[in-house]
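Response to reviewer comment R2.3. The reviewers asked that we include at least one raw input/output pair. We reproduce the pair for HlyD family efflux transporter periplasmic adaptor subunit here without editing.
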Amino acid sequence: MSARPDHMRRFATLAALEPPRLARVLSTMILFGAAVVVVILFAVPWVQTTSGYGTVVALHPEDRVQSVTALVPGRVERWFVRDGETVRKGDPIAQVVDNDPGLLARLAAERAQVEAEIEAAQQAMAVAQIDVGRSRQLLSEGLVARREYEASMIKVADHRAKLAESRAKLNRVDVALTRQSAQIVRAPRDGRIQSINAAAGATLVSAGDVLATLAPSEPVRVIELLIDGRDIALVHSGRSVRIEFEGWPAIQFSGWPSVAYGMFDARVRSVDPSARTDGLFRVLVEPAPGARPWPAAEQIRLGAKVRGWVRLDTVTVGYELWRQLNNFPPEFGSIRQAAEAADSKGNGAKAKAKPAEGDSGKDGGK
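Raw output as returned:
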C-alpha cells in the first residue's frame, strides 16, 4: 500500500476509500467538457441571422406571366398554338372573327360613302367662299345689301361644319375598321404558352377576355422574402443573404455560414417601406456579384419556394444563447453605431453654427 499523508492517517475510513477509475475518468471528462463549453460560449463567434420564406419572381414587370387577351369581340375561329409551345414576339396565337361575316364589307362601303360626303362638302365650301369674295366686292361697290354678304358667310360656316362632321364620321369608321382588322392575336414578346383558355373557343368573347397565358423566356430572377417586423430594422440594402431553394439539396448552419453546404449567396436589393396585412415585410433579394451563380431557370422556375437567411452582426455563442432564452431581438450594434455617428455629425454642425450666429449678432450690434 502506498504511503498516506499524515493528515489522511487520522481518517482511516476516508483513507480506505478508493474512487473507481471510471469515476475519475468521467470527472476528468466533465471538467474538460465544461472548460470547452466555456471557451465556446465566450470565444467562438456566431453570425446572427433573420430568416424568412419567399418565392422566386421576375424583377421586371414585362418578364412576369402575362395574359394574352382578345382585342375585338367575336368568337375564336382558330388556334395557332398549344400548351407548352415556345413563341416569338409577333407570332399568331389565335384568330378572332366577328359574328357578322359581312361587317368588314359594310364598314368599307360606309367609309367610301363618308369620303364622297367629304369631297362634296369641300366643293360646296369652295363655291361658297367664291360667293363670299364676289359679295364682298359688290358690297364695296354698293350693288348689293350687306345682308346678302352676311348670308354668303353663313353658308361658308355651314359647309365648314358639315365638312368637320364628315371627317369625324370618317375617323369613327377608321377606328372600327382598325379594331376589326386586329382579329389576329399575337404574342407580345418571346416566351412559352403556359395555358390556353379552351372555353374561349366555344363561346363568344369580348374585348379584354383572356385567351392564353404567356410566360416570358429568360426573365431576370429575384426573390421575395417575407421578414418579421421585429428584425426588419436590421435589414437594409447590401446585406448578405444565404439562399436555400426548394428541392435543392442543402445543409444550413445559421451561425457558421462557411460550414453550410448547397447554399447560394445573395444580397438585399430593397426593403418595402410598409408592411403587408399580415405584418411581414417584403424584401427583394438579388444574386450576389461574383458569387456562385444560381441554378438555371429550367431548374429553379418562377414561383419556386425559397428560404433565406439575412446575415446580421457577429456575436459570441454565449450572447446568442442568452438572447434566444430571453427572446430579445438581434444585436443592434451596427445600427446604434450609425445612429451615434449621425448624431455626432449633427451636433458638430450645430456647434459650428452657433458661434457663427453669435458672431453675426455681435457684428450686428456693433
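The longest helix spans residues 103-141. Helices lie at 6-9, 12-16, 21-43, 103-141, 146-181, 317-326, 333-365. Further pairs are available on request from the corresponding author.
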